[in-house]
Amino acid sequence: MTPVGTSVGTSGSRKVAVVGVALSDCGRVDEATPYALHAQAARRALADAGLDRRHVDGFASAGLGTLPPVEVAEYLGLRPTWVDSTAVGGSTWEVMTAHAVDAITAGHANAVLLVYGSTARADIKAGRRTGNLSFGARGPLQFEVPYGHTLIAKYAMAARRHMIEFGTTIEQLAEVAVQARANAALNPDAMFRTPITVDDVLDGPMIADPFTKLHCCIRSDGGAAVLLAAEEYVRDCRTAPVWVLGTGEHVSHSAMSEWPDFTVSPAAVSGRLAFERAGVGPAEMDFAQLYDAFTYMTLVTLEDLGFCAKGEGGAFVEKGRLRVEGGELPVNTDGGGLSAQHPGMRGLFLLVEAVRQLRGEAGARQVRGRDGEVARLGVASGTGGWFCSAGTVVLGR
């Protein structure tokens, strides 16, 4: 196998596969540190691939430490020759995947480990931090924060715009949460599995109009890791490869006043690029893993990825289309951030679930293609900030 630090292959000639994925302990994890969750997820992903950490020459991480990739790499005992610390919120990991694929394809790295971990829930329970209402009050944000424009309020205002322009109803948005919970019921590792109804969602405490509590993601602890490698590594791995077919990334705005249209997310660009580069289209996807910090995110991302026309997301999510059982397009098959786990920048969890689906390792929540066989194509699309950034990855086996 190629030693760490060795450049092989001709630029643009190498295919890239996901060869290892894993989650750390998730949900309620009161005793671990974020570093420990990073390490647990990383060890499990390497074991999943059947590779040793000495094979890892590329490393990507964000969100922990003063020098995020340096501190975490040191903690994991890694000395990478290619690093990435891109931090664009929840879409960070899909964007990092795009960067890692480019690096591997060009021969600048051979095996790149992406890893994340957070004790967001445990820290609040222990009083080590409080719930943050905003990302700060510097730069462009100084013109919004003084008026009480919280993070959740930004999403709520965008959802209300969609409702006004297209007639989207609060019941349709609630259906996203109901179907996410139905999928979570099939996932033994999901944090919340008890079925809910549209009335349960509507009757909850108001958080930011029109969002009640169940329109919003849960807060959990947890970590995830994904190992990408050049095609020549595949023969040495214990798992079947899941190929990265196409990626796309896009940033839209920082201040809400610079967002041209509250009903269009940056996934409209990242998705188009990813599908074009993969040479496939939305209609060919067997499932979609979408960032769902709020129900509206799922709905508008479905539109922007091309699964339905702009303004038709509300009608699309009705009648159980997002469910694993009987759904036309299973979405967030593990239960998503609304029910399974959401420790912060959740984009890496989307990739883990997508790979497990394509390997046929999802158990009771396994998606089948139109031919009855295990899913062959899927898409993971992360969103960052308040629809500020997006990264989309198309995967296939």
UniProtKB/TrEMBL annotation:
Give start-end ranges for the coiled-coil region(s): none
Q: Residue span of the signal peptide, if any? A: none
Question: The organism sits in which domain of life?
Answer: Bacteria
Sorted alphabetically, which CDD domains does this protein's record hold?
SCP-x_thiolase (cd00829)
Output the InterPro entries linked to this UniProt entry. Thiolase (IPR002155), Thiolase-like (IPR016039), Thiolase_C_2 (IPR055140)
| Domain Thiolase C-terminal: start-end pairs | 248-397
**Protein known as:** Acetyl-CoA acetyltransferase
